[in-house]
Amino acid sequence: MSTYTISVMKKEQECETKELMQRCFDKSLASIFFLHPDTTLVVLYEGRVVAGLNLDVYRVNDQVNMGYLGWLYTDEKHRGKGLAGKLISESLPFLKSLGCTDVAACVEGDNPASFKQLENEGFSRLPLVGQIRRFRFGLFRVWKHASRFFDMGYFMWHLHLDGATKQGYPENCKAFVLGAVANTLLFLPVLLGWNLLSLLNLSWMQVSHPNKSLLVAIPLLSLLVRTLPSLVFAHTRKIQLVYRQWDTAYFTALLLPFLAGLPFPVPGNLYIQGSNWSMKTHARSLARMSLVSNTSLALLFILLPNPYTLFLLTLDTFFFFYPFCGFNASRIMREGWNYRTYDIILTLACYAFLLVY
Fold first, then answer.
1. Domain range spanning residue 294?
2. Is residue 323 part of a domain?
C-alpha cells in the first residue's frame, strides 16, 4: 500500500514541482513564484510529487534568521489528507536545524484553511509595530522576500522558534481608532496640496468645501459608513466578526498622496472570528456584507461628494485582484456576476453623479 513521504526536493524533481505549482495557483501570481531546491519540502506518493512547501531562508539582522513559509500547494486529487499541516509541522524542525530563529508566513484574511494550520503550530498574527520591533532595519528585507510592499488584506503570521512571548494583534475598537487616525493624517497632504505634482505646477485635483473641519472628518466618516452597516448585517445573521487593520497597505497610502496628491484609503475589514469556518459556507454572507458596505459608501458620496469616499468605493468595486485582495471587490467577485453587476452599476452611477454635480 502506497504511503506519503516528506523529503527535501531533489534537483531532478524541480520541473515536476514547478508544474504542480502552476496547476495550483492562478497564472497572475507566477511573477512572484520562488523555488529554492535546497529549502523546498515535497510530499511524494508513488514516486510523484503531490504537494510541496517552498521555504526561503535568509538573515534579517544580527538577532534574526528568518525561515519564510512561501508557497504551500497540494495536488487536487490529494487534498483533504492533511498534507499541508504535515508539511508545516516538518518545516519547523527543518528550519531550526538551518539556524532559523523566526518563522513567518503571509496569509489572506479570508483564508481559514491556511491560517488554521499555522494556528495549530503556535503561529500568531504579528502587527506592524511588532514587525518593526523585531526586524528593525531588516523590515524591508522581510517584505521584499515576502513580496509584501503593496499587498492589502494579507497578514503576517509569525513564530519564535525559541518560544518567546507572542504579541497581540490590535482588533476591533482599538484597531479601528488607530486606522481612522492614520487615514485622517494621510488625507491631510491631499487637502493641503502637499505633493510632488503641485511643486511642478501640475496639480489636477482640488478639494474644497465651505466647512474645512468637515473635510478632515471625511476619512473617519467613510470608514464608519463602510464598516457599521456590514457589522449590523452580520449581527442579524448571527455571524461573529472581528475588525482588523492592514499593515503594508500603508506603504501605498503614504506614497500616493505625496507623489500624486491622491488619497489611498486603508479601510481594513471585518473578518469572521476564529478559524473554524470555510469560504464554502460563508462566501455568500461575506459578499452580501460587502454589497451593504458599498451601497452605504455610495449613499454617503451622493450626500457628501468627495474624492476620499469615491476612491474607497472604487477600490471596493474594481480592485479584486492580487495584491488588493482585502477590499470588498474580491468577496463580491466570488459570488458571480449578479452581485458584481449591481456593484459596478452602483459605482458608475456615482461617477455619473459626479459629472453633473
1. 172-356
2. yes
Q: Are residues 146 and 197 in the same domain?
A: no
Helix (H, G, I), strand (E, B) or coil at 357: coil
User: Could you write out the DSSP letters of every residue in 258-293?
Assistant: HHHS-------EEEESSSS--HHHHHHHHHHHHHHH
Strand 40-45 versus strand 4-8 pairing type: antiparallel
SS3 labels along 3-57: CEEEEECCHHHHHHHHHHHHHHCCHHHHHHCCCCHHHEEEEEECCEEEEEEEEEE
pLDDT score for 147: 84
**Does residue 60 fall inside a structural domain?**
yes
Q: Give the three cell numbers for residue 17.
A: 514541482
pLDDT lower than 50: segments of the chain: 1
**Is 73 contained in some domain?**
yes
The answer to whether residues 346 and 295 touch, using CB atoms and an 8 Å cutoff, is yes
Kindly give, in sequence order, each residue whose CB lies less than 8 Å from that of residue 128, ignoring residues fewer than 6 positions away: 247, 250
Distance CA(161)–CA(205), nearest Å, equals 50
102-114 tens-digit pLDDT? 999 999 999 998 9
Give the global pTM.
Answer: 0.91
Task: Quick: pLDDT tens for 122-167.
Answer: 999 999 999 999 999 999 999 999 888 888 999 999 999 987 777 7
